[in-house]
């Protein structure tokens, strides 16, 4: 049944490999829990068994977020079994998720973004490449995995957009913007050929051996640039994605457009950035209003 379920998630739902791995991990943990209780068939599970599993997860000191994720996996699995006629009722349907305090993502200020962008030494080929990469991250809000695996033929310089394939191989087109386009063009004209040294690579951004970059290597570079810029926040590629979304919403972009550019399948995931923008505006009001 698990095999059928994972095939359904992959083929019909088009979920990413990372999401499938999370579902697999959570559901195998549930099956192990049932075996310890002497339950050999998941169809014999009732609501008390599921509740007991959630209590056990909490006793294992797992976070509320992890417990909630396990419950989502169970609900999705039992809905699939219902759909296939393998069970008559879902034992996970009416259980409440543990309450979670939603942690708002940190973002960079505009001045911090500018300081970060100024750090790569653009007199060098690697500095030119890094400046182009950071500009692209901030201009498009793409994920770091999308950036390091971006094929050359998916950037349209004339049109000023980039074609991206996100989670579940969903396609989206994102505008690049003038500054990022300028640096990407400069990199392609002056630095990329010198890094490639005649080697062929499908990737736009390559290392000094002419090969694709790893996420970890770029993460290390951007962290070093953040420290050099004197930014106290924890600098990650995802921080630029958060900043991209928040800065757009602060300046009047509509939520649906930001959702499309980020590649979120559910708009509720994008809505967290409206809270970030709201919190930021409140702080500005308190700091500058005479009766704040």
Distinctive features:
DNA polymerase, domain 1; 292 residues; 13 helices; 2 domains; 58% helix; mainly alpha; 3 strands; hpI Integrase, Chain A
What does this entry show, briefly?
The chain is mainly α and about 290 residues long. It is about 60% helix and about 5% strand.
Describe the protein's architecture and organization.
With 292 residues, the chain is mainly α. It folds into two domains: 2-83, DNA polymerase, domain 1 (Orthogonal Bundle); 110-288, Intergrase catalytic core (hpI Integrase, Chain A), CATH 1.10.443. It has helices at 2-11, 17-36, 47-59, 64-83, 110-117, 125-140, 144-148, 178-196, 215-228, 237-250, 255-262, 267-270, 272-288; strands spanning 155-156, 161-165, 171-175. Strands 1-2-3 form a three-stranded antiparallel β-sheet, with no helix packed on it. Strand 1 (155-156) and strand 2 form a beta hairpin. The longest helix has 20 residues, at 17-36.
């Amino acid at each position: 049944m698990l095999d059928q379920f994972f095939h359904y998630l992959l083929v019909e739902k088009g979920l990413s490999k990372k999401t499938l791995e999370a579902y697999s991990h959570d559901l195998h943990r549930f099956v192990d829990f049932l075996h310890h209780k002497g339950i050999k068939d998941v169809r014999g599970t009732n609501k008390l068994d599921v509740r007991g599993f959630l209590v056990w997860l909490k006793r294992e000191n797992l976070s509320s977020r992890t417990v909630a994720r396990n419950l989502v996996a169970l609900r999705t699995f039992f809905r699939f079994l219902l759909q296939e006629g393998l069970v008559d009722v879902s034992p996970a349907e009416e259980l409440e998720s543990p309450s979670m305090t939603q942690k708002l993502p940190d973002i960079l200020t505009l001045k911090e973004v500018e300081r970060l962008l100024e750090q790569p030494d653009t007199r060098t080929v690697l500095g030119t490449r890094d400046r182009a990469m950071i500009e692209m991250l901030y201009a498009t809000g793409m994920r770091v995995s999308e950036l390091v695996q971006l094929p050359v033929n998916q950037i349209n310089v004339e049109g000023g957009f980039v074609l991206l394939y996100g989670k579940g191989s969903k396609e989206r087109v994102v505008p690049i913007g003038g500054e990022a386009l300028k640096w990407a063009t400069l990199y392609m004209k002056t630095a990329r050929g010198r890094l490639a040294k005649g080697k062929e690579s499908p990737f736009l951004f390559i290392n000094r051996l002419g090969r694709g970059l790893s996420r970890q290597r770029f993460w290390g570079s951007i962290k070093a640039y953040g420290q050099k810029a004197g930014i106290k926040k924890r600098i990650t590629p995802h921080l630029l994605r958060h900043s991209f979304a928040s800065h757009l919403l602060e300046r009047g972009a509509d939520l649906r457009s930001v959702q499309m550019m980020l590649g979120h399948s559910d708009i509720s995931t994008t809505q967290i950035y409206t809270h970030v923008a709201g919190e930021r505006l409140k702080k500005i009001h308190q700091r500058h209003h005479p009766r704040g």
